[in-house]
Amino acid sequence: xxxxxxxxxxLVRPGGSLRxxxxxxxxxxSEAIMSWYRQVPGQAREWVATIVPGGDTRYTDxxxxxxxxxxDVASNTAVYLQMDNLKPEDTAVYYCQEYGSTTWxxxxxxxxxx
Length: 114
Hints:
This protein is mainly β. Helices cover 0% and strands 44% of the residues. The protein is built from no helices and 10 strands. It has strands at residues 5-7, 10-12, 18-23, 34-39, 46-51, 57-59, 67-71, 78-83, 92-98, 108-112. A 6-stranded mixed sheet has the order 2-10-9-4-5-6, with no helix packed on it. Strands 1-3-8-7 form a 4-stranded antiparallel sheet, with no helix packed on it. A hairpin with a 6-residue loop joins strand 4 (34-39) and strand 5. The N and C termini lie far apart (39 Å).
């Protein structure tokens, strides 16, 4: 199983934006079902969004209209989660994972605070 590397997190004010990246050398992102999850300490990991090989995407209700999941089509080396209009409740560690995998990366911390 592949361990993905998440990056792009940080501290941002409410209403701000971040773009998270999920990469793995040599992995064929265009052929995989990829998802983003997030976890707040002491709480269960929460599904955020999924993209399938055809490009269709699904989002949890709380992020619809604010988050966009897409692939790096040109290089097929990563998937990205564009997060706009961030809210304090989006604060969490964000992880990406391939469908069916049980392996988790280190995640990337997103903190939304004024």
